[in-house]
UniProtKB/TrEMBL annotation:
CDD domains: AAA (cd00009)
Record-annotated PAS domain positions: 222-276
InterPro entries in alphabetical order: AAA+_ATPase, AAA_lid_NorR, GAF, GAF-like_dom_sf, Homeodomain-like_sf, HTH_Fis, P-loop_NTPase, PAS
Region (Disordered): 680-702
Domain Sigma-54 factor interaction residue range list: 344-574
One of the Pfam families matching this protein, by short name: HTH_8
Name of protein: Uncharacterized protein
Keyword Repeat: no
GO function terms (MF aspect): ATP binding; sequence-specific DNA binding
Alphabetically ordered keywords of this record: ATP-binding, DNA-binding, Nucleotide-binding, Transcription, Transcription regulation
Keyword ATP-binding (UniProt): yes
Gene3D superfamilies: 1.10.8.60, 3.30.450.40, Homeodomain-like, P-loop containing nucleotide triphosphate hydrolases, PAS domain
GO biological process entries: regulation of DNA-templated transcription
Length: 702
């Protein structure tokens, strides 16, 4: 069917007959009506429309203004285009119509005659010409099909439009989504096939301008975002041309160079730095981590410069102070100390003595050895010593010697070079000593360090330099060492488990931290601190303790020390039923030696802080029972069974009593072919019944 013949009387009559058949439900001859029109009729009927009536309601002027404001970009671009078109089509009998994506008419312009005719049919600004409202038409149908269409007379679903021809084309916004329609409508005799082409041209012009505006806005936004990023990054940035002239810098760069931006622009890099940091032969490559020292006003500042070729003719240089870069690295790897002496709670003489010695230690660079049971706060003391000393702004690096397998501890401590061993990182790895250079390294649980690693550590302490595994190059070290242990090191030396020469290297400034059970005066203050901490964290309305709860806390043995107290308070906060914690809620469990055992296994006594304490774990040879020695040499099985009984089957507590770590205890159990679970059950039965375990000497079963 030739579209140019659709406006002829014959074609219109065929369309009228086809529409009547459609209205009556009779199958329509597809040769008598276009496919896209028939499909639109079917949609219109599915909307519940009929041929004679339609929704011609108007929105209010205020609602129309609001709708235009919400589509201001479309309106501001389309309105001038439509006005200009009318300048060329005045007197042609066409009405130009701009609609939004919902079919609402936002603007019309045309000759008085066509406007008057449109007014009679309520085709005015504020009306809705969507397909759902009035069926097939040159505005609503393109919004559905996303394609231009010319609707001739009888093809309109609504009968009053039968003497009109509408030529409509969708206006597309970002992403190819229709955001409106431009339509030309006029009497059948004034319309030609080219009218649709004109409508498409206008709609495309509007769409293109909208896309151009969007692209401009995107570029403008990205440029502003780039400027914002450049200005807010903590690094100095220099943009240079191919002649290495600086054409842009950020305010941070100007501040680092102590020059205003206008004094930097246009100058070459070597004029600013008073030296050439990059070789002209290597500018095509990325140059990382170039160290540059700049002297300004008699003051030297070290920087790390990096150069990247941004394009063929442009280079980007970023630079930071070496000092600030190191601080960021240490923050990233968690090598910061947070606690100070003000964070240490306690007024008892034992803890105050330890604090006083720690404050003295903080003022010098001597190696510190912290001794004390697990959970007494040795790392808190280490951080406080670091933060009170001259290295407070330098890194504080922690290594737990018991947390790593023997195969990894050396590479963690000393680092390694590329290819040092199978699985090594291609770029190598900086060890803890390198990361701690200039600051403090805290070697926790030093007593669990393997003997061969102890020998390597001793060399580092003696030579004050470290070599990565696989490297012959040594790095000079300026590191303050703080070590900590809950093991009786002199006893370990006797048992060939710890090197004596390393012990004397470490034991320069010995500070013993007393266990909590020897600080009963501090229990109330510590308990209140943890209560307020976890009540606030959990948003629980707990305000304090009952007096009975306080008395129970002060009477508890606290073999788990401050860590045990903290855990008990945290749990109690969550199960609390009132504002004050009760004895039942703090739920103290006596899972350590009872008072009748304490005479046999003496309560730990604080060692003099000026020397190492061989009995700081509480098992002194003078007390009649030396469990560590029994475990290491005399009768390991008897010592294990006794410790498990005393600890009510708790492996960790038993290991502490034996001056061993869990791994060592498990290894010893397996060497005897013993099942830890079965031993724990036996120990609990023994504890509850008071009977003797087989294989335990009578002296241990008193």
């Amino acid at each position: 069917m030739d579209i140019r013949d659709l406006s002829s009387p014959e074609a219109q009559e065929k369309t009228r007959q086809a529409k009547e058949q459609f209205r009556l439900g009779v199958p329509v001859d597809e040769r008598s009506v276009r496919k896209e029109i028939l499909e639109s009729w079917q949609r219109s009927r599915s909307y519940g429309l009929d041929f004679e009536t339609a929704d011609k309601s108007l929105i209010s002027p205020a609602a129309l203004k609001k709708r235009i404001r919400e589509r201001q970009v479309l309106y501001d671009i389309a309105a001038p285009v439509i006005d200009k078109l009318y300048d060329f089509t005045t007197g042609s009998g066409f009405l130009s119509i701009l609609c939004d994506e919902e079919g609402y008419v936002l603007k019309t312009i045309g000759d008085d005659e066509i406007r008057a005719a449109a007014q009679k049919n309520l085709l005015v600004e504020g009306c809705n010409r969507s397909e759902r409202r009035i069926g097939t038409n040159g505005i609503g149908t393109p919004l559905v099909t996303h394609t231009p269409i010319q609707v001739f007379g009888e093809e309109h679903f609504h009968s009053p439009h039968n003497n009109r021809v509408c030529s409509g084309a969708p206006i597309f916004g970002p992403g190819g989504v229709p955001i409106g329609v431009f339509c030309l409508t006029g009497r059948s005799e004034t319309v030609s096939f080219h009218t649709l082409g004109l409508a498409v041209s206008v709609a495309n012009d509007i769409s293109q301008q909208i896309r151009m505006l969007q692209a401009y806005n995107t570029v403008d936004r990205l440029q502003k975002q780039a400027e914002l990023i450049v200005e807010t990054v903590p690094s100095g940035i220099l943009l240079m041309n191919k002649d290495l002239e600086i054409i842009r810098t950020n305010s941070r760069g100007a501040a680092l160079l102590h020059k205003p931006q206008n004094e930097i622009m246009g100058k070459k890099l070597h004029e600013i730095l008073h030296r050439e940091p990059f070789s002209p032969d290597n500018l095509e490559e990325t140059i990382d981590d170039q160290k540059v020292c700049i002297e300004e006003g008699g003051r030297k500042t070290n920087f790390i410069f990096t150069l990247n070729a941004a394009s063929k003719d442009h280079y980007v240089v970023t630079f930071v102070k070496t000092e600030s870069l190191q601080k960021k690295i240490h923050r990233l790897i968690g090598s910061e100390a947070y606690f100070t002496f003000d964070d240490i709670i306690g007024r008892s003489s034992g803890i105050q003595n330890a604090i006083a010695l720690a404050k003295i230690a903080s003022g010098n660079r001597s190696t510190v050895l912290l001794t004390g049971e697990s959970g007494t706060g040795k790392e808190l003391f280490a951080q406080a010593i670091h933060n009170a000393g001259p290295r407070r702004d330098a890194p504080f690096v922690v290594l737990n010697c018991a947390a790593l397998p023997k195969s990894l501890i050396e590479s963690e401590l000393f680092g390694y070079e590329n290819g040092a061993f199978t699985g090594a990182r291609r770029e190598g790895y900086a060890g803890k000593f390198e990361l701690a250079n200039g600051g403090t390294i805290f070697l926790d649980e030093i007593g669990d360090m393997p003997l061969d690693v102890q020998a390597s550590l001793l060399r580092v302490l003696q030579n004050r330099e470290v070599s990565r595994i696989g490297s012959t190059r040594a790095t000079k070290l300026d590191v303050r060492i703080i070590a900590a242990t809950n093991i009786n090191l002199p006893e370990s030396i006797k048992n060939n488990a710890f090197r004596g020469d390393l012990y004397y290297r470490l034991n320069v400034f010995n500070i013993h931290i007393p266990p909590l059970r020897e600080r009963p005066a501090d229990i109330r203050a510590l308990a209140e601190y943890f209560l307020h901490k976890y009540a606030e964290f959990s948003s629980r309305p707990v305000r304090g303790f009952s007096e009975e709860a306080f008395r129970a806390l002060e009477g508890h043995s606290w073999y788990g020390n401050i860590r045990e107290l903290e855990n008990i308070i945290e749990r109690a906060i969550y199960v609390a039923r009132s504002e004050f914690l009760t004895v039942e809620e703090i739920h103290l469990v006596s899972n350590f030696p009872s008072t009748d055992h304490v005479e046999t296994v003496p309560s730990p006594k604080p060692a003099p802080v000026s020397s190492a304490s061989p009995d700081f774990m509480g098992f002194s040879p003078q007390g009649g029972l030396d469990l560590p020695s029994l475990f290491e040499a005399e009768d390991p099985l008897a010592a294990i069974e006794y410790a498990l009984t005393a600890a009510n089957g708790n492996i960790s507590r038993a290991a502490e009593m034996l001056c061993a770590n869990r791994r060592t205890l498990y290894r010893k159990l397996h060497s005897y072919g013993l099942d830890p679970k079965q031993l724990r059950r036996q120990a609990k039965r023994k504890k509850s019944s008071g009977g003797a375990l087989p294989g335990v000497p009578n002296s241990l079963n008193k």
